[in-house]
Amino acid sequence: MMPNLKRTVYQTLCALLLASTLLPAVAAPSQSTFTYSVSRGKEVIGEIQETLTIDAQRYKLESKTIPLGVAAIFVKDTILMSSEGGYSVSGFQPERFEYHRSTKPNKDVTARFDWTGKTAEFSYEGKTESQALPELLQDRLSALYHFRFLTKPPKTQTLPVSNGKKIENQLFKYSGEETLTLPIGKIKAIRYERERTPDDDGITLWINDQWAAPVKIVVTGKKGGQTEQVLKRAKLDGR
Q1: Are 133 and 120 in contact (CB under 8 A)?
Q2: First to last CA, the chain
Q3: Which of 90, 212, 100, 96 is nearest to 151 (CA)?
Q4: Is the entire prediction scored with pTM above 0.85?
């Protein structure tokens, strides 16, 4: 069952990634890196590099955001996020999420998800809090990969998502298929949207069968304005 799922979800990542579902836990891990350009309007303001490592029935996602261009003059932060845990036919099951800002360690966040005890523990700003752990929970990093596990796009998908401090239900809507022209080429992709609210940003993401990672993400701020993230390069298992 797992090899079929992996062929569906990551069918073109690389031969080794597919093989990792067929071999015992001692098989070498498979690693792929996705590089995004981040822009606001016509201005490139940053770059995001995300690395996905798959080993037996575990995953690790690591994300690094650095400012570029004019933004680098005013913003000195490098933002690091990581998500790790197990995976199954339902998708990623995060067990730990971390968020770090290079110049503001007081903003660091760590979340631990205990699936046996059904509890989530959040550590930030010198305090620790806990909350009941809902089924299908994702963190803010793994949530963007969740839709690749869906064999048939639902019209709507309510997903509990944690930012490392709390858990909120987020409603995503299927918005059809589009053809995008991106730095990596012309891509047919499925579009999902989470509407903007007075309390939270809106997000639109595009996925397709070729890449494990989203190929494009647009974030609409609570007060308007958009930030666009597009896939410009993919390095599949070292190639």
Answers
A1: yes
A2: 27
A3: 90
A4: no
